[in-house]
Amino acid sequence: MQIYRLAARPLAQQPRGAFWLPQRRLFSSTSEYDLVVIGGGPGGYVAAIKAAQLGLKTACVEKRGALGGTCLNVGCIPSKALLNMSHKYKEASSDFKKFGIRVDGVSVDIPTMQSFKDKIVAGLTQGIEGLFKRNKVEYIKGAGRLADPHTVQVHPIGGGNAEMLKTKNIILATGSEPSPLVGGALEVDEKQIVSSTGALSLSRVPRHLAVVGGGVIGLELGSVWRNMGAEVTVVEFCDKIIPALDVEIGRAFQKLLERQGIKFMFSTKVVGSQKSNENDEVTLELENAKSGDTLKLHCDVVLVAVGRRPYTRDLGLEELGIELDKARIFANLRSLVSRSRCIRGSITTPIMQCSGAVVDSPRGRIMVNGQMQVPKYPHIMAIGDLIEGLKAEGVAYKRGAFPFAANSRARLVKVLTCKETDKILGVWILGPNAGELIAEAVLAMEYGAASEDLGRVCHAHPTLSEALKEACMACFDKPIHIA
Q1: Nearest of 116, 257, 117 to residue 200 by alpha carbon
Q2: Which GO cellular component does the record give, naming just one (predicted)?
């Protein structure tokens, strides 16, 4: 078979887990697919489009009936939409007055907010369908299951006979689902006791929202409803929020949330619950993990946000001998690739991957789990190492930090570098537009830049990006605008 290569800049480092696929200028003329992607989320649909652009005959199987996965339908996009709307309400109702702007009679219209959010989601999902048509990706609505190493069985959403798709390669990009609370103390009904999906679709502002889990999802959704007037209490089993968070950033972030009015109960676990249909109240039975003391918390809505787990049910994994580890991630998939060409795609790990499995255009390959990881938290973006990790590994490092003094909602940018080489090892940003600011740090770390490289680059003034420049200057020299 003739293999065509595209001229491209050679990669600085070939990622591990790269599997080479033949490139074609035309689609296959046979009925067999070159690639079938199970899952139409950010990992799956991106891989499908790129494969089709390379000339591979590609199909994408999605059981939700709408492309975009959790992120677009019941995750990042609707959550950010509600967070943005709730922040605007908070500004209008309480923050504008300090700028000399008086706004009277501000109120929340939840049905209109939810309708606006749904329109955003619908527009984006339809946009992905348009990209599929433009790139000639076949979109199949149904539940995909591995029948054998080269066959995907699809059960249509509307019922009917299953369809068999013959394929040379398969990407599993089935994403994740909300994790239940261990022990069964809370049973989600999406009315009074809700998952993140239900918390995005509430028809009213809760009087008192109890958030079980002080992680990324719980804190963001807690912020949404707190901004709109709900009393919010976070119940966390650990002794701090987001255990994987940088300690300094975590403390500053917790203070920010407490100033918003969010309350925290640390080292506390839920051991039981009672629902009352008369007054729509839920009573949580809590126990202090250290002292054993018990107490009760009364609320009207409970959000169970104890993390997410990979969606691996009903995929036919066991029949093919694909084993799962304790985290339900494929334990032996890499050893099976050579004979089955079945490749792990976007499946949630403790730190979310940008796009799990992607098809790389210059090299015509499928890459599994790129090494660059960008954790995402409300108001926080980060890449690279933690100070605790560097200390544990015995790495000599330097720390540079700079505050966003001009914005009271923001905190700081922190940069960690190798003491000997000045190479950037980690960047943490707490503040507004952190998601945009982190891109410069990602690019710098991808190419092995030193803090001096960023510190000597001209940054537009006055902009928030100057904080990253100053934090880098604090590593290799001295910052200008802080004592």
Answers
A1: 117
A2: mitochondrion
Q: Is 176 annotated as contributing to ligand binding? A: yes
The whole-model pTM stands at 0.84
- Determine phi and psi for 299, rounding to 5 degrees: -155, 175
Q: Which position among 155, 208, 459, 461 bears the catalytic label?
A: 461
183 assigned to a ligand binding site: no
26 is in an annotated binding site: no
Least confident stretch, 209-213, 241-245, 272-276? 241-245
pLDDT digit string (tens) for 126-146? 999 999 999 999 999 999 999
The second-level CATH assignment, the architecture, of 378-476 is 2-Layer Sandwich (3.30)
Q: Which residues, 6 or more positions from 274, have their beta carbon under 8 angstroms from its beta carbon?
A: 282, 283, 285
Give the domain ranges of the chain: 33-177+309-329, 193-306, 378-476
Supply the pLDDT for residue 353. Answer: 35
R_g over Cα of the chain? 24
278 is in an annotated binding site: no
Q: How far apart are CA 176 and CA 216, in angstroms?
A: 15
304 labeled part of a ligand binding site = no
Query: Which residue in the block uniquely carries the two structure tokens 């967070």?
Result: 83
- 461 flagged as catalytic: yes
* 144 annotated as ligand-binding: yes
Q: How far apart are CA 146 and CA 31, in angstroms?
A: 18
463 is in an annotated binding site: no
Helices (H), 153-215: 196-199
Mean pLDDT of the chain: 84
What is the signed CA dihedral for 74, 80, 82, 88, rounded to 10 degrees? 180
Query: Which CATH number among 3.50.50.60, 3.40.50.2000, 3.40.50.720, 3.40.190.10 corresponds to the domain 193-306?
Result: 3.50.50.60
Q: What is the CATH number of domain 33-177+309-329?
A: 3.50.50.60
Which of 32-41, 123-132, 139-148, 373-382 has the least mean pLDDT? Answer: 373-382
Q: Is the dihedral of CA 288, 293, 299, 301 positive or negative?
A: positive
Do 33-177+309-329 and 193-306 fold alike per CATH? yes
Q: What value does the mean pLDDT take over residues 260-267?
A: 97
**pLDDT per position as a tens digit, 75-104:** 999 999 999 999 999 999 998 999 999 999
